[in-house]
Structure prediction request, 108 residues.
Amino acid sequence: MSRQLPPPLAAYYEAKNQHEINGMLAPFADDAVVTDEGQEHHGRAAIRSWMEHTTRKYRVTVDVKQVETVDDRLVVSGLVSGDFPGSPAMLRYAFTLSGSKIARLEIA
Prediction:
């Protein structure tokens, strides 16, 4: 699973695939921002709420296929499977790191 992923991203995906919210949230900075489905979630409390909602609704797992650096972001392409129309689907997760924490995540 760690396919060229730095530790915060490897921890995020490992926890995501186990549907473990605390583990998914742990690598995020206190003031992190997540953009998903056209909405932004600011700070750990909002990100936790987003994680709980989407995990309960979609129950996704991600098979990381590619990792590349684009500008100042790490872009992860993964095959996402879960309870949603069109599953499985390739999605891109664009991460911005600040030290050893995830500062920003944009999902498309």
